[in-house]
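User: Reviewer 2 asked us to show a designed sequence for the structure in our supplementary figure. I'm pasting the structure tokens here. Could you produce the per-position amino acids so we can include them in the response letter?
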């Protein structure tokens, strides 16, 4: 299957359109192998590590084939934790963007009455934790007797958390004609028994073996950024490190074009490579990059395949890759020929969990770095300018300007003249107009979970006003705001988090009482 595009796997056109918008150019191994088998109607046991793209692997075929609601649930997807249920539901919503499929996440810690009301209105796909799903079944609010698809995601984790009995009861309440999918990183005996007991005898077992993760020669670091400050953060990193040759990876073709345009407009030597460019364009771009006339090559994963360039000092993940294997392939572009390389990854607070999956899979430490301040950029540039001046003074070429310098000496202080010339050099080397010494993301260290979302017709401005009115919180204390269908996440400073929970949780907002708590999503 390797090398096949999504459009060759048999998916519905509306799903392919959403995948294109999401920016995935090519399926991961688990997706390429699992999707066609699921579309053929087979039960599947998918064995693959976290971070390999499993959600799309089962989500795309399910959403391609699930029937529209006639008061019956079409698919149930079980996950071990509330956080994973939210994450899976969120991704499925993106995959279902151009369909009319209705989804809902159900989990403990939220009012069950609201979930029951939503189910009564008609839902096609339910994503939930075993405990809450079973509770809804027992209350006769969730009928799985006609489901087409049953998905057990991270089955080994559900086993470890003691959900095996709940899962069996849920399966017994499900349609016998269903198609069953079980995904697990490991296959302990209990999971094998479960598969044998409840899956069809001809079920396909698809195992994606762990790749050898060779990252020893690469120093790995990450920067936590706000989405709106991602570009400025990159510019600061480039200005401090001054890489002589770097590959910067974006998730989408559009992302490559936008980043190239942004960097070029600020004087950085950058060119792009992606799937929409013809072979000659790619060859010429790569040639200029190898020759050093282009400092920064901006590329998607597919376009960068097969690139073999020595002396790449930096690989920068402007966007996180789709899976761990892509991350390893990316950073393998540096640290060659017994030389140490550097890999930087820019992540938002929301992406931090994915980064920890990468760290675990590669058995390596990805260390945190703070985004450079303007003072640090100035110091770096100053050292560079002084070094170049010293090199020039060791040659004779500067002597032709001595007579001109003598004339300046009669009118100005030569120390001030030297400082003015250094300022001119500095201004040429720093193209971004930095307005503040430190960028705001360093103080972003708490993530709040709020029980309001798009269905309540809220927007970021309304949230900021709500925080300010009740807890005197200014917008400077608030980072990324992610408003999903039925709930929201907001990144805030630690002090702001305490004030918001104390003064805003339980208050009426958007016509009803809002509950606010620290998100329990793992931070490491």
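Assistant: Here is a per-position design you can include in the supplement:
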């Amino acid at each position: 299957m390797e090398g096949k595009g999504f459009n060759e796997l048999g998916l519905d056109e509306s799903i392919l359109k959403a995948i294109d918008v999401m920016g995935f150019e090519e399926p991961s191994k688990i997706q390429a192998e699992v999707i066609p088998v699921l579309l053929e109607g087979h039960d599947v046991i998918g064995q693959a590590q976290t971070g390999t793209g499993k959600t799309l692997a089962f989500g795309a075929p399910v959403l391609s084939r699930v029937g529209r609601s006639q008061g019956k649930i079409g698919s149930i997807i079980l996950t071990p934790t509330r956080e994973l249920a939210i994450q899976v539901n969120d991704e499925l919503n993106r995959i279902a963007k151009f369909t009319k499929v209705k989804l809902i996440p159900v989990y403990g810690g939220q009012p069950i009455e609201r979930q029951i009301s939503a189910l009564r209105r008609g839902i096609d796909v339910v994503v939930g934790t075993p405990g809450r799903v079973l509770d809804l079944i027992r209350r006769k609010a969730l009928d799985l007797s006609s489901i087409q698809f049953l998905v057990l995601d991270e089955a080994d984790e559900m086993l470890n958390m003691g959900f095996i009995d709940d899962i069996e009861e849920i399966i017994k309440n499900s349609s016998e004609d269903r198609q069953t999918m079980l995904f697990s990183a490991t296959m302990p005996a209990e999971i094998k028994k479960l598969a044998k007991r409840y899956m069809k005898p001809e079920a396909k077992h698809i195992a994606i073996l762990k790749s050898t993760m060779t990252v020893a020669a690469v120093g790995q670091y990450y920067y936590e950024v706000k989405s709106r400050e991602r570009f400025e953060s990159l510019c600061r990193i480039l200005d401090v490190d001054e890489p002589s040759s770097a590959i910067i990876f974006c998730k989408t073709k559009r992302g490559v074009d936008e980043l190239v345009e942004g960097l070029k407009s600020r004087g950085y030597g950058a060119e792009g490579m992606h799937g929409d460019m013809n072979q000659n364009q790619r060859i010429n771009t790569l040639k200029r990059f190898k020759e050093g006339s282009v400092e920064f090559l901006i590329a998607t994963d597919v376009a960068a395949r097969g690139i073999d360039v020595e002396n790449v000092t930096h690989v920068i993940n402007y966007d996180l890759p789709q899976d761990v294997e892509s991350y390893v392939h990316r950073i393998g572009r540096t640290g060659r020929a017994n030389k140490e390389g550097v890999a930087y990854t820019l992540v938002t607070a929301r992406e931090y969990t994915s980064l920890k999956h990468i760290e675990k899979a590669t058995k390596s430490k990805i260390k945190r770095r703070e985004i450079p301040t303007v003072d640090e950029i100035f110091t770096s540039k100053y050292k560079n300018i002084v070094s170049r001046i010293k090199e020039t003074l060791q040659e004779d070429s500067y002597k032709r300007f001595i007579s001109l310098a003598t004339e300046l000496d009669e009118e100005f202080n030569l120390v001030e003249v030297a400082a003015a010339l250094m300022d001119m050099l500095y201004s040429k080397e720093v193209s971004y107009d930095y307005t503040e010494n430190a960028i705001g993301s360093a103080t972003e260290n708490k993530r709040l979970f709020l029980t309001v979302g798009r269905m309540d017709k809220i927007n970021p401005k309304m949230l900021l006003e709500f925080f300010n009115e009740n807890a005197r919180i200014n917008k400077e204390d608030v980072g990324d705001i992610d408003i999903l269908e039925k709930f929201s996440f907001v990144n805030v400073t630690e002090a702001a988090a305490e004030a918001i929970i104390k003064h805003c949780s339980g208050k009426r907002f958007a016509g009803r009482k809002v509950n606010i708590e620290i998100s329990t999503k793992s931070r490491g």
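For the response letter, you might also mention the following. Residues 374-393 form the longest helix (20 residues). DSSP finds 20 helices and 20 strands in the chain.
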